Amino acid sequence: MTATTATTSTSTTPPTALHTPVIDWFDEHARDLPWRRPEAGAWGVMVSEFMLQQTPVSRVLPVYEEWLRRWPRPADLAAEPPGEAVRAWGRLGYPRRALRLHNAAAAIAERHGGEVPTDHHQLLALPGIGEYTAAAVASFAYGQRHAVLDTNVRRVFARVVTGTEYPPNATTAAERKLARLLLPEDPATAARWAAATMELGALLCTARGPECTRCPIADLCAWRGAGSPAHEGPPRRGQTYAGTDRQVRGKLLAVLREASGPVERAVLDRVWHDPEQRNRALNGLVGDGLAERLPDGRYRLPGAV
């Protein structure tokens, strides 16, 4: 069977031809990241996966290391108020991830004796754990055979197999089918393949500047073989920040994180000039569980004393 049976591919390369060169490249060039070390354990892998969503490694590293020093086990985090998770999240962005990780830690402590479950279905049942994160933890922590599809992997598969510069904006059924087809049969090799394709997309097959001359499978790449045609699909979604509600939320949350106690509304009002946008952002933080409004009108992180 070839990859063409899974999608409208322009490649006729059998999946097995890709495995060895990509994994060999990974063995030589993989970054030494703390969550890849044996001592990280499943909890370290899970923490990294939450933090790395839409956030570069360089920003994650210091927060990750401090997080694991403070909360080396799920039960350690679960014992703290959720506001402490939000505080420790710092400026990683998308702080609801901190609440989801806290909720997952509480569920692990309650349902699984404090140990991150090995079963894929049990991982999926944890709050805040979706298809990607469950597959990543099962693969990277426990060496299981699952298709791990993050943005980097999807881009590699789009170029190498389907001959397109970028994957669709949202993961499709065809991509999932292709990923399963490309997965090595041996679980340990499959887990290595998942990590290797992710690293290939992060370091060489990047969105803006692919380094095809250094790629271990450049001669097998359908996109390169077709002359690297420009993207013809829907426009790529940009990530605006300045002036958005997200920026205002970040400024308000920064005040709450840095405060040693509840914060007066007047202090928060100085954060942003537009009262309508400021109120909308503050109400959004409360609605998302990232902040609490006290009866006296002051605000604090959730569960903070």
| Secondary structure tally: strands | 2
- Tell the overall outline: globular
Q: Mean of the pLDDT scores?
A: 93
Percentage of residues in strands: under 5%
Domain HhH-GPD: 51-203
Cofactor: [4Fe-4S] cluster
Keywords: 4Fe-4S, DNA damage, DNA repair, Glycosidase, Hydrolase, Iron, Iron-sulfur, Metal-binding
Pfam family, one: HhH-GPD
Please write out the topology.
Blueprint: H1 16-29, H2 41-52, H3 57-70, H4 74-78, H5 82-89, H6 96-111, H7 120-124, H8 131-142, H9 151-162, H10 173-182, H11 187-203, H12 222-225, H13 245-258, H14 265-269, H15 275-287, E1 292-293, E2 299-300
Antiparallel strand pairs: 1-2
Task: Please outline what is shown here.
This protein is mainly alpha-helical and 305 residues long.
Please give a handful of descriptors for the protein shown.
two-stranded antiparallel ribbon; mainly alpha; 305 residues; 15 helices; disordered N terminus; globular
Please explain how this structure is put together.
With 305 residues, the protein is mostly helical. Helices cover 53% and strands 1% of the residues. A hairpin with a 5-residue loop joins β1 and β2 (299-300). The protein is globular, with a radius of gyration of 22 Å.
